[in-house]
């Protein structure tokens, strides 16, 4: 069954500015999450520089046996990383069109939010959870 496990947002400097788990994951503490963000930022930058393809923007998908890690980099360099069940459909569209729109509408347009700082916005949280729960319901995970 497809499922979305977590969403991480990394600023252009490589700092973790947002993380939410939608499904309980095995012993993932804050230090592990911070390590994941910094390692991903570094690997993404290295892949951009080493790629033989001109205009490469970095790693977009990492497949493992137990999860897929999808990455969408915005034009400003902010990275949105979504951890999903392997073979979850249309995650790139979900990240690019839906999650990024929520980020723009409820975080970037918030007059109290400072760019590159941790995201603490209740409207973003609630709309994100509603979106993810709607996707899970559509797939028949949580009725």
Automatic annotation (TrEMBL):
Q: Give the matching PANTHER family.
A: TRAFFICKING PROTEIN PARTICLE COMPLEX SUBUNIT (PTHR23249), TRAFFICKING PROTEIN PARTICLE COMPLEX SUBUNIT 4 (PTHR23249:SF15)
* Protein location: Endoplasmic reticulum; Golgi apparatus, cis-Golgi network; Golgi apparatus
Which SUPFAM superfamilies does this entry report, sorted A to Z? SNARE-like
For this protein, the record's Pfam families field holds: Sybindin
Family assignment? Belongs to the TRAPP small subunits family. TRAPPC4 subfamily.
| Official protein name in the record | Trafficking protein particle complex subunit
Q: Which organism is it from?
A: Coccomyxa viridis
Name the SMART domains for this protein: Sybindin
- Record's InterPro entries? Longin-like_dom_sf, TRAPPC
**Annotated keywords:** Endoplasmic reticulum, ER-Golgi transport, Golgi apparatus, Transport
Biological-process GO terms, alphabetical: endoplasmic reticulum to Golgi vesicle-mediated transport
Q: How does it assemble?
A: Part of the multisubunit transport protein particle (TRAPP) complex.
Q: Which domain of life is it from?
A: Eukaryota
Q: Respond yes or no to whether keyword Endoplasmic reticulum is given for this record.
A: yes
Name the gene that codes for it. TRAPPC4
Give the GO cellular component terms, alphabetically: endoplasmic reticulum; Golgi apparatus; TRAPP complex
Keyword DNA-binding listed? The answer is no
